[in-house]
Specification:
With 213 residues, the protein is an alpha/beta fold. It has one domain: 3-Layer(aba) Sandwich (Rossmann fold). 54% of the residues lie in helices and 11% in strands. It contains 10 helices and 5 strands, in the order E-H-E-H-H-H-H-H-E-H-E-H-H-E-H. The protein is globular, with a radius of gyration of 17 Å. The mean pLDDT is 93. It binds cytidine-5'-diphosphate (CDP) (2 copies). The site of one cytidine-5'-diphosphate has 17 residues, from helix 2, helix 5 and helix 9. It is an enzyme of class 2 (transferase). Keywords: ATP-binding, Cytoplasm, Kinase, Nucleotide-binding, Transferase. This is Cytidylate kinase.
């Protein structure tokens, strides 16, 4: 069973995907971490003439099985670096095989990101597109960062998230849109448990319809 979960920044797709992975006993891949790792590797070369070449090399050499220092990778700044390398076609191409391989392991998997239902797993058994109002998403990310001890300027964070979402949606190589067969789940007014229950209901119904679950 392959479950594809996509959505904008801080929509709750990661938390939801972890919950789904636990619920169905499947492995989970947060594909944002791959982009964050590449962005982090080239963070000091954003203005360099060879930025793209460096980012492509970093993606080709990424050891996805050993994404270290995940705490660092989760910071808001790293999200911005990630979205800058994510617009480079060959960067996405370099990491595609790993993601497809992860999805196709025996038994299946849950993957979350931006292009899972559209590019990485167009044949996923169930696709979810997670949405939430931008102010709610900013507040969630602010609390998440504060819990990690980061100082948060909510005004700046709001604009940073809006800007990153806009770049992701305009990314010609990004595949970031709701697939025609994806189920939309708006979690603006949902807590984590409610969102998980809603997602499980959608998945169980979809699998029952396919006669698979
Ligand atoms: O993966 P993504 O960036 O979409 O979001 P996340 O990291 O799963 O969620 C961002 C923050 O919002 C986390 O601290 C979650 O605990 C919180 N959250 C929430 O408050 N309510 C939800 N329905 C989902 C997530
Ligand atoms: O958790 P949040 O949604 O804030 O970010 P993330 O999922 O860790 O992704 C960071 C950035 O990586 C995104 O803003 C995208 O630019 C890029 N990304 C992507 O292009 N495709 C994916 N499948 C996952 C992330």
């Amino acid at each position: 069973m392959i479950i594809a979960v996509d959505g904008p920044a801080a929509s709750g797709k990661g938390t939801l995907s972890k919950g789904l992975a636990r619920h169905y006993g499947l492995p989970h891949l947060d594909t944002g971490l791959l982009y964050r790792a590449v962005g982090w590797t080239v963070r000091e070369h954003l203005e360099a003439a060879d930025f793209e070449a460096r980012a492509i090399a970093a993606a080709q050499n990424l050891d996805a099985a050993h994404l270290d220092d995940v705490e660092l990778l989760i910071s808001a700044r790293t999200g911005v670096f990630a979205s800058k390398v994510a617009v480079i076609g060959p960067v996405r191409e370099a990491m595609r095989a790993y993601q497809v391989g992860f999805a196709r392991q025996p038994g299946g998997a849950v993957l979350d990101g931006r292009d899972i239902g559209t590019v990485i797993c167009p044949d996923a058994d169930v696709k979810l597109f997670i949405q939430a109002d931008s102010k709610a998403r900013m507040e969630r990310r602010a609390r998440q960062l504060e819990a990690r001890g980061e100082n948060v300027d909510r005004y700046a964070l709001y604009h940073q998230i809006e800007e990153r979402d806009a770049r992701d949606m305009a990314n010609p190589h990004g595949g970031f849109y709701q697939a025609s067969d994806a189920h939309l789940l708006d979690t603006t007014l949902m807590g984590i448990e409610t969102a998980l229950r809603a997602a499980v209901a959608i998945i169980d119904e979809a699998m029952a319809r396919k006669g698979k679950h």
